[in-house]
Q: What sequence folds into this?
C-alpha cells in the first residue's frame, strides 16, 4: 500500500504531468480572458441585436452604447415626387439599409415591372443593403462593397446626361453626387432619414468608464457622436479607460476615425458586422 502511495505521489509530480497541468491552466486563463472581453456597440439600438448575438457566439460580451438614432423626415414631399417620376432615372443608388427602408423600395419594384418604361437600374452599397432590397423583391444590378465614389462610379457605366436618384441621410457625404456630376450625370439627392445623437445609455456609459476592450464604429456618424457624447460625460474619447482598440466596419469609417484623432484603429476586410466580428476574434489575443 505504501508503495502504491509513493508511486502515486511521484506520478502527480512527474514532469509530463506538471507540463500538462500548466498547459491546462494557461488555456483556462486565456479562455476566461477571451470570454470576459467587452465590445462596445455604438450603432443604433434597433440595429444592434444581430451584431450583439454574433459577438456572444464568438465569446465576447457586447455592451450596448448607441450614439445615434435614425429618424424619418416628417412632412417630406421629396420621396413622393421622386416616386412619381421614376421613369426619368437611369439608376437608383441605395447606400444603406436605412435608405431602403425609407419607403422607396416598393415603388422601385413596381417601376421595374412596368412595360414600355426605360430600364431602372438599382445599386446597393454593401451586402446588407443588397439583402434589404431582396427582402422587398428587388435584385440589385450592382453591389459595390463600400461607399467610395470611385468604386460606385466604376459600375454605373456612362452616366452622361442621365438622372441618378440618391435617397440618403440628411448629413450624407457629397463625394458620390460630386463624382456623378463630374461624369456628366445629374445627381438627384433626396433626404429620406435623419441621423441624430442618441440619449446616453447609462449602463453602457458605466461600462465604458470601467473599461472595455474594443469600441466599434459602423459609420462616420457613430465616430462623430461618440466623441461628442464621451466628452459631454467627462471622458476623453482618445484616452479611454483600458485603452480599447477602435474597430471600424470599413475604410470610410476608418478614415473618419483616424481624422478625428483615434490612433489604435483596425478595420474589417469584409465591410459587414460578420467581418467585424471575425476581425475582433483575430485581434483579441493581441489585446
A:
Amino acid at each position: 500500500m505504501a508503495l502504491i502511495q509513493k508511486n502515486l505521489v511521484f506520478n502527480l509530480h512527474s514532469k509530463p504531468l506538471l507540463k500538462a497541468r500548466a498547459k491546462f491552466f494557461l488555456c483556462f486563463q486565456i479562455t476566461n480572458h477571451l470570454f470576459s472581453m467587452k465590445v462596445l456597440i455604438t450603432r443604433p439600438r434597433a440595429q444592434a441585436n444581430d451584431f450583439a448575438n454574433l459577438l456572444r457566439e464568438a465569446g465576447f460580451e457586447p455592451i450596448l452604447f448607441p450614439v445615434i438614432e435614425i429618424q424619418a423626415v416628417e412632412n417630406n414631399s421629396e420621396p413622393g415626387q421622386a416616386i412619381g417620376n421614376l421613369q426619368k432615372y437611369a439608376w437608383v443608388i441605395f447606400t444603406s439599409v436605412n435608405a431602403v427602408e425609407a419607403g422607396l423600395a416598393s415603388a422601385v419594384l413596381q417601376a421595374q415591372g412596368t412595360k414600355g418604361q426605360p430600364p431602372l437600374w438599382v445599386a446597393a452599397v454593401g451586402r446588407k443593403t443588397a439583402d434589404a432590397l431582396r427582402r422587398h423583391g428587388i435584385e440589385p444590378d450592382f453591389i459595390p462593397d463600400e461607399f467610395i465614389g470611385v468604386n460606385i462610379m466604376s459600375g454605373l457605366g456612362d452616366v452622361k446626361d442621365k438622372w441618378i436618384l440618391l435617397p440618403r441621410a440628411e448629413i450624407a457625404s457629397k463625394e458620390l453626387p460630386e463624382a456623378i456630376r463630374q461624369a456628366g450625370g445629374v445627381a438627384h439627392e433626396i433626404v429620406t432619414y435623419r441621423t441624430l445623437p442618441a440619449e446616453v445609455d447609462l449602463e453602457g456609459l458605466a461600462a465604458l468608464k470601467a473599461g472595455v476592450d474594443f469600441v466599434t464604429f459602423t459609420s462616420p456618424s457613430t465616430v462623430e457622436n461618440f466623441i461628442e457624447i464621451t466628452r459631454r460625460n467627462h471622458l476623453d474619447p482618445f484616452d479611454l479607460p483600458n485603452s480599447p482598440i477602435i474597430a471600424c466596419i470599413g475604410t470610410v469609417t476608418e478614415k473618419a476615425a483616424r481624422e478625428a484623432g483615434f490612433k489604435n484603429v483596425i478595420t474589417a476586410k469584409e465591410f459587414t458586422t460578420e467581418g467585424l466580428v471575425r476581425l475582433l476574434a483575430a485581434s483579441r489575443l493581441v489585446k
Summary: The chain has 13 helices and ten strands. Residues 34-67+199-283 form a domain with the Rossmann fold fold (CATH 3.40.50.10090). The radius of gyration is 25 Å.
